[in-house]
């Protein structure tokens, strides 16, 4: 009995230590609610779920890089350029919206393919390849933006159909209605999870060795990296379309901070900078908690610098824990090897 109790205590300590940042976010929400109980309203939670959807898609995309031990810097700019392209096509062509979205996603799938080929064929580090993609997407955004709207600082002339992706709700009561964006993002989540857990290629993405990807010149490493990078680019693009549809505006600063949000969500969900860790399902509760903290802080204080302060603290602690756990795993493996 004593052994079982000690084991239970040890598991609890281990769980608390591994999830200290996520638990801290939950406690911060409780503190904010105690300060201002009116934060706990159905309307606020509905707004949180609307904000939750594009962030979930962005975090899913970045998680595919991290699970392979890679890094991406282009997600934020790819999302912005995809939103601009979708808006441009919705204004200037008679194509139905779903075809426009598919076309845009296919275009940015090519971006993911190019990044994957740089990483696998030319052995360019993923951070360098995606940094180049970030610069290209950012430059293309500004060139197209000023060409498309030379006299507008913020684009707000969205078609009704385009806006419905991020604003339409199921239900007559605005307070208790279910956002369509939430249904779409959860559907995409399930599709990605099914692909990663039920297909041979998807399973190998979560079990593939980082060193094999970096050094690989064979078809296996290439195929897995290409699939992961293309899927990530599609998720970034769709997240950008959904966010611009939700906000109803698009400007050069519209997606500022989205890359950092996705990165923090992934770290809090158990993904590591060094690859080989993390599960897709952990993104759901962490994305919700992270979005709720940002939303409540903004409502309570009305100052974005509080959000920046929280993000900075979370980033430092999460990175420190990631390094600590990596060193501990290496030490354990060495001890086992010596003992064997």
Task: Describe the structure in your own words.
The chain is mostly helical. The chain has one domain. Helices cover 77% and strands 1% of the residues. It has 14 helices and 2 strands. The chain has a two-stranded antiparallel sheet with strand order 1-2. A hairpin with a 7-residue loop joins strand 1 (169-170) and strand 2 (178-179). Residues 209-220 have low confidence and may be disordered.
Which descriptors would you attach to this protein?
340 residues; two-stranded antiparallel sheet
Summarize the structure.
With 340 residues, this protein is an all-alpha fold. It has helices at residues 2-18, 20-35, 42-67, 75-92, 97-121, 126-148, 160-167, 180-198, 200-207, 210-215, 219-247, 258-268, 283-301, 304-339, and strands at residues 169-170, 178-179.
Rg, alpha carbons: 21 Å
- What number is the mean pLDDT? 82
SSE run: HHHHHHHEEHHHHHHH
Q: Which geometry do the CA atoms define? A: globular
Strand order of the largest sheet: 1-2
- What proportion of the residues form beta strands (DSSP E)? under 5%
**Would you tell me the structural class of the helices and strands?**
mainly alpha
Q: How many discrete structural domains?
A: 1
Q: Alpha-carbon distance between the termini?
A: 31 Å
Number of helices: 14
- Tell me roughly what share of residues is in helical segments: over 70%
Main sheet makeup: 2 strands, antiparallel
Unreliable spans are 209-220
- Number-wise, the strands total 2
